[in-house]
Design a protein that fits this description.
- This protein is of the alpha/beta class.
- The chain has three domains: 5-57, Electron transport complex subunit B, putative Fe-S cluster (3-methyladenine DNA Glycosylase II, Chain A, domain 3, Orthogonal Bundle), CATH 1.10.15; 64-311, Dihydropteroate synthase-like (TIM Barrel, Alpha-Beta Barrel); 325-443, Rossmann fold, CATH 3.40.50.11600.
- Helices cover 41% and strands 17% of the residues.
- The strands form five sheets. It has an eight-stranded parallel beta barrel with strand order 3-6-7-8-9-10-11-12, surrounded by seven helices.
- The longest helix is centred in the middle third of the chain and has 17 residues, at 238-254.
- The protein is globular, with a radius of gyration of 27 Å.
- The protein binds iron/sulfur cluster (SF4).
- Iron/sulfur cluster is lined by residues 12-13, 15-20, 22, 25, 28, 42, 44.
């Protein structure tokens, strides 16, 4: 049971020494109760108090790590229900299934396709994190053989999906050093599965028909010394899974209900890739730690990773590119010069359209604290002074000889002021970036 701020205060040194960065011990206690501080920030807390406060200072949702090294996946340890209240910290792991019953050629082909699910979006590399090996054959040696094959041919972390303790043990014999997620504990097999997880030091996924039974099961498993748990949520429809995920998150954050204070995993394969990806996208938004999907085509996975990329940014910090002059293609002194803002989405949209035009161009990304063109203009972060300064910093006068600047059509109103300030001719470009290829090919001279 979580302690109140006053109960925590009674256990602190009460010296108000400020070493924790707070003005008083009481302020620190209140923040600790709200999970906005960590006990380790107070260097003088006694060992006795530490053990009593351990529960109160633990994160409401446990951090669970799947895998090892650079590709390990960390899930959980989230503090808020709503992203705009703070931010979501640990991006949902995306996992794609592979069945151990595929024939050799199909298995290799699917594994290759899964390994290649990598993309670049708004200047960032994005890819899936995990591969879920499903024990569809029911044969321990087959499951172990396929697990070994995946292990030797992927950089992704692993989920072993089987409710058979014998088959799970066989697969773990060939990959336990990779610390896979053991996906398969339920009310029938939890004792041997928990023993396996403990023996191999692997996280364990737990399933139950209801949240009450799930909470009972996690308490039992924790009681035998296994606490790196993942709560499996599965149902026939998106609504029920979302409800389960939301109840788990609320119970953990609002009620500090420890038996459900773990990250969740969803799997809702239904043979319809469109629906599967739409459902998985909803689960990423609320509140899956891992989503497992059968879909493995780039056009299916890219939207999912795009949703994740957007959800797991800090809503108070727009994603920005470095404000500077960028070259697209083999530019020369006659190449057109466009400006836009340093908001990543805006910049990369413009860059993509310029690339598509095949007209080598300069793009000046103007510092607007990562806001879009209209937002920056209306907040007076984009005006003739800011643009003139960016042009001077980029030494545009030395790079091109034509002295013409293509400005976004959305800020056509700035054209006269820019001309007056910079002595460059301001050419009003299209309002939408999608108009740039035509503009550069037909209007630009
Ligand atoms: S460091 Fe510890 S003793 Fe000092 S003010 Fe903070 S909580 Fe109190």
């Amino acid at each position: 049971m979580a302690l109140t701020g006053l109960e925590i205060y009674k256990l602190l040194p009460k010296t108000n020494c400020k070493k924790c960065g707070r003005a008083t011990c009481l302020a620190f206690a209140m923040q600790l109760a709200q999970k906005k501080a960590e006990l380790k920030d107070c260097p003088d807390v006694s060992d006795e108090a530490k053990s009593k406060l351990g529960e109160a200072s633990a994160p409401p949702i446990k951090l669970v790590t799947i895998g090892t090294g650079d590709n390990q996946v960390k899930i959980g340890e989230e503090n808020v229900l709503f992203r705009h209240d703070e931010k979501f910290y640990h991006p949902t792991g995306v996992s794609v299934t592979i069945g151990d019953d595929l024939d050799d050629g199909a298995f290799k082909d699917r594994l290759d396709r899964i390994n290649n699910l990598k993309f670049t979006r708004v200047g960032t590399d994005i890819e899936i994190d995990l591969i879920s090996i499903q024990d569809k054959s029911g044969d321990a040696s087959k499951f172990a053989e396929r697990t070994k094959e995946v292990c030797g041919n992927t950089h992704l972390s692993l989920i072993l999906d089987s409710t058979s303790v014998d088959n799970m043990r066989a697969a773990l014999e060939v990959c336990a050093d990779k610390k896979p997620l053991i996906h398969g504990a339920n009310s029938d097999n939890w004792e041997p599965m928990a023993a396996l997880a403990k023996e191999k030091g692997c996280p364990l996924s737990v399933s139950a028909p209801s949240l009450e039974e799930l909470a009972d099961l996690t308490e039992k498993i924790k009681g035998v010394g296994v606490d790196d748990l993942v709560l499996h949520q599965s149902a026939n429809n998106t609504k029920d899974v979302l409800q389960g995920l939301t109840k788990i998150r609320r119970a953990a954050l609002r009620k500090s209900f420890r038996p459900l204070g773990y990250p969740a995993l969803t799997y809702m394969g239904n043979g319809n890739p469109g629906r599967e990806i739409a459902s998985a996208s909803a689960f990423i938004a609320k509140y899956a730690g891992v989503v497992v999907v059968d879909s493995c085509e780039p056009w299916q996975i890219m939207p999912l990773l795009t949703v994740r990329q957007n959800i797991f940014t800090d809503p108070q910090k727009p994603v920005q590119v470095q404000p500077k002059l960028y070259e697209v293609g083999q530019v020369n002194e006659d190449s057109p010069v466009l400006f836009t803002t340093n908001f990543s989405l805006t910049y990369y949209t413009v860059e993509g359209e310029v690339e598509a035009s095949r007209v080598p161009s300069y793009i000046l990304a103007v510092e607007t604290e990562g806001t879009s063109v209209l937002t920056a203009y209306s907040g007076d972060k984009l005006n003739e002074d800011v643009i003139a300064k960016a042009m001077a910093n980029a030494q545009l006068d030395e790079k091109v000889k034509h002295k013409k600047l293509i400005i976004p059509g959305l800020v056509a109103v700035l054209s006269a002021k820019i001309q007056e300030k910079t002595k460059w001719e301001a050419l009003v470009g299209p309002k939408e970036a999608s108009g740039l290829p035509t503009y550069l090919k037909t209007t630009w001279h």
